[in-house]
């Protein structure tokens, strides 16, 4: 193989590796951001529903409470509704608290996304670091050697990044049990 073909082969392999690594991590970043958006939408929907249900439960009992405060006699329905009010509100509050615990999962997704972006930035920094010493007069053999070293460094960085990133997002110790998503 001629020097030109060897050099071209190394450049092609390096650029293909950088492209594949970048696309893979950016695709994962996009997936994590979409999952975060879905979690937040679901949590906000549940929170809104819970708070509206609490407001409704309190509003429905307000007339009975007003009669009691005015010294009036509560009806049997009022007594039953007031007795049930605490449990009903407790249920809605528990639903709201569980919905707020989605924050932990979204934090994990955001943390993982930031690690991917940082890893990709370091990956690109490695290219700059190894490529900055290559000048137009640098010989083919030295370029081939440097390209081999940068390819090895990038492969190691890619493996290290993949090994520190969890594949799933977990929520533990919820009243409803452990949850593992994605």
Helix-residue proportion: over 70%
- Quaternary state reads single chain
Number of strands: 2
Number of domains: 1
Low-confidence stretches: 172-177
Q: Which structural class do the helices and strands define?
A: mainly alpha
What is the global morphology? rod-shaped
Distance between the termini: 47 Å
How do the strands line up in the largest sheet?
1-2
Helix-strand topology string: HHHHEE
Mean pLDDT: 79
The number of helical segments is: 4
Radius of gyration: 30 Å
Query: Strand-residue fraction?
Result: 5-15%
Main sheet: strands, sense, barrel: 2 strands, antiparallel
Topology diagram in text:
Blueprint: H1 3-69, H2 76-100, H3 102-131, H4 140-164, E1 169-174, E2 177-181
Antiparallel strand pairs: 1-2
Helix pairs in contact: 1-2, 1-3, 1-4, 3-4
Summarize this structure briefly:
This protein has helices spanning 3-69, 76-100, 102-131, 140-164; strands at residues 169-174, 177-181.
Descriptive tags:
182 residues; mainly alpha; 2 strands
Overall description:
The protein has helices spanning 3-69, 76-100, 102-131, 140-164; strands at 169-174, 177-181. The chain has a two-stranded antiparallel ribbon with strand order 1-2. Helix content is 81%, strand content 6%. It is mainly α and 182 residues long. It contains four helices and two strands. It starts with a helix and ends with a strand. The chain has one domain (3-181). The model is unreliable at 172-177 (pLDDT under 50). Helix 1 runs antiparallel to helix 3 (102-131), helix 1 packs parallel to helix 4 (140-164) and helix 3 runs antiparallel to helix 4.
């Amino acid at each position: 193989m001629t020097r030109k073909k060897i050099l071209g082969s190394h450049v092609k392999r390096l650029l293909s590796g950088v492209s594949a690594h970048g696309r893979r991590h950016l695709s994962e970043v996009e997936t994590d951001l979409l999952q975060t958006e879905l979690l937040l939408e679901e949590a906000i929907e549940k929170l809104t529903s819970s708070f509206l249900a609490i407001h409704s439960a309190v509003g429905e009992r307000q007339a009975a409470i007003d009669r009691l405060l005015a010294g009036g006699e509560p009806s049997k329905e009022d007594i039953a509704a007031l007795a049930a009010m605490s449990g009903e509100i407790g249920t809605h509050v528990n639903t709201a608290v569980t919905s707020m615990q989605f924050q932990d999962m979204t934090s994990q997704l955001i943390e993982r996304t930031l690690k991917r972006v940082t890893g990709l930035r370091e990956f690109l920094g490695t290219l700059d670091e190894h490529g900055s010493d290559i000048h137009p007069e640098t010989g083919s053999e030295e370029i081939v050697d440097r390209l081999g070293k940068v390819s090895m460094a990038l492969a190691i960085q890619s493996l290290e990044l993949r090994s520190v990133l969890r594949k799933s997002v977990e929520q533990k110790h919820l009243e409803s049990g452990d949850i593992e998503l994605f």
